[in-house]
UniProtKB/TrEMBL annotation:
The gene is Rdh5_0. GO terms for cellular component: cytoplasm. Coiled coil: none annotated. Gene3D superfamilies: NAD(P)-binding Rossmann-like Domain. GO terms for molecular function: oxidoreductase activity. InterPro entries: Fungal_SecMetab_SDRs, NAD(P)-bd_dom_sf, SDR_fam. It holds the Pfam family adh_short. PANTHER family: C-FACTOR-RELATED, SHORT-CHAIN DEHYDROGENASE/REDUCTASE. This is RDH1 dehydrogenase. The lineage of its organism: Eukaryota, Metazoa, Chordata, Craniata, Vertebrata.
Amino acid sequence: SSMAGLHVRSVLVTGANRGLGLGFVQHFLKMPNPPQWIFATCRDPKGQKAQDLQNLASKHPNLVIIALEIADPASIKAAAAKVGEHLGGSGLNLLINNAGMVKSKMLEAETLEDMTETYTTNTAGPLLMGQ
């Protein structure tokens, strides 16, 4: 794989409870030399939608699940603080901005609220995460 030659000490994956995000987490866990820390974030880590992630975390002590709402700066700050508790001053090596949302609907049904929520999550969210 293209990531075979990559060694990261710590990685954070957003939207890690299903789909691609969960796939990234599984990939890192299976690496011959896995990261010391894999931070998997999702909106509701204790919820039913995060069951697969919870199962993985129970088997892998290097996998840490953190609640994160990427459209909420206060939530990002809290998540960053939790990551910092594990990493100390060493900093995060890799951020995978995977979380996103789509509400597919016909043009006539589109609303300003939904467009704004989508933009905040998909465009501003990754920018805030990077900060």
